[in-house]
Request: fold
Amino acid sequence: MVEAWYMDESQEDQRAPHRLRPNRAVSLEQLRLLGVVYRKLDADNYETDPCLKEIRRAENYSWMDIITIHKDKLPNYEEKIKTFYEEHLHLDDEIRYILDGSGYFDVRDKDDKWIRISMEKGDMITLPAGIYHRFTLDENNYVKAMRLFVGEPVWTAYNRPADDFPARKQYMKFLAEEAQ
Reply:
């Protein structure tokens, strides 16, 4: 089961858990109210998993690839890790399915506070278009993830501030509606 919590303000190693003391856990329902969708799948059988096949059909995820983030597997590793950790948004949903290893997705809540979502093998997350977020490995320094897209992939990240994009405005409207 995925675990999420509010982060401390420390600027030390981004790969550390950064839990508040005392810990302030975040539930799946709280994530859902931010538009974040979580699923648990069978990563050992992702190539033949009927649940993944059904999700891809239902959500129209027509494009997929697999990325391994590790210093021995990813070209320009250090540069990529820094880029992934810069706060940004996308104009499309970001869908990631962890096939092996682990890492953290950080998202902003409605009050602009960071929530850290610990992801491990079998976890699938969908971050809505327009949500400010970032990604980092955890202290294990390894993750293998499936990236899914509707149509052709668009890799463009828009670093904060990016509030004038229609995707951000639509996301803010979604948050306002969820708050009512």
